[in-house]
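Field reference: sequence -> structure
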Amino acid sequence: MRSPTRMLVVLTALLAGLVWAVGCGEQPAEQPGPQPVTGDPYVIGAMFAITGDASSLGIPEKETAEMLEQMINGDGGINGRPLKIVIEDTTGDNAEALKAARRLVEGNDVLLVVGPSRTGTTMAAVEYMEGAEVPLISCAAGIDIVEPAKKWIFKTPQTDRMAIEKIIEYMAGQNITRVASLSDSTGFGKSGLREIEKLMPAAGIRVVTKEEYGPKDTSMETQLTKIRGTNAQAVVCWGTPPGPAIVAKNLRQLGMDIPLICSHGVANETFLKIAGDAANDVVLPAGRLIVVDQIDADDPQRPVLEEYAQEFSKRYGKSADTFGGHAWDAVKLAALAMGQAGEDREAIRDAIESTTDFIGTGGVFNYSAEDHNGLTKDAFVMVKVVDGKWKLAR
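Structure field:
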């Protein structure tokens, strides 16, 4: 007969084994992580103004493209294959942009190209890209890029037309009926001026004077002094940094107490840094990224904006940028299209054109044969600079 002590030991061991077995049975099956990418890469090109006077646009675009390449490959690539992005610097120059496009298409046999950063550099490459039959997803704003629609050309930023429509809505609420236009001499500035001349008078807003500056000018006091001699109730400045920041400073130095309304081309930290205190009270239409913490919690863009902002900040130790967001949208659209269409350029083009309800940093995109931008003015919110920070102008 077994002793009570020995029987207790046996029962304890059996009970321990039973608990272990039940516990193991309740554990969820281990989920496999992303598989290593293998095979030949999907190769796309990117061309940004990494150096030159538009580098405040191109640098965050380049950084975002490089970040997304790593993120996509770390998450299993495209159909299990790696993504490779070959990046060229346009220096913000039209001739260099065309050379960059040729190098990417003829030297690297890319499936599509993302960029450039500027309207002018994009337009310089459009005819070549159309002839080469290679999709281009521009990161520039000018409406001329996609109007009229061109078979192989798309873009992600909201257009200057949408921005002006949003500004007109804002002006109606402020009872502003007379403005002075001050635009830079680049393709972006000229495209914006054309839309100002067309849309504002139609909305009952008189453009009392039109002035221009060069993107490398260091003072706009002469133009602003002329504006001061008019009855303009606001200055509408169309350009990208550093120009609009200089305008803001000069406006303050001249003691001109009228609102400065800028384009969406200033929606980055560079403008705030250059303008300093003079940036305060500047108003502009912008995508939701720079005010992501202030938009509604149920806004469909919020999860995407938070993901981009957090990943960019974690990787680079600085705030996410509107212009980097344009590259995020473009590379994401490219990866989505290649995932559907493989390596056939025309099939990739067709996949981009048929994209609907794509939630990006710039808005919710719905492309079509007639619309190669896919956004409306509702992609914008009005933003005001308060104490050196972006604030949603509700």
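Note: The chain has two domains: 42-158+300-376, 161-286.
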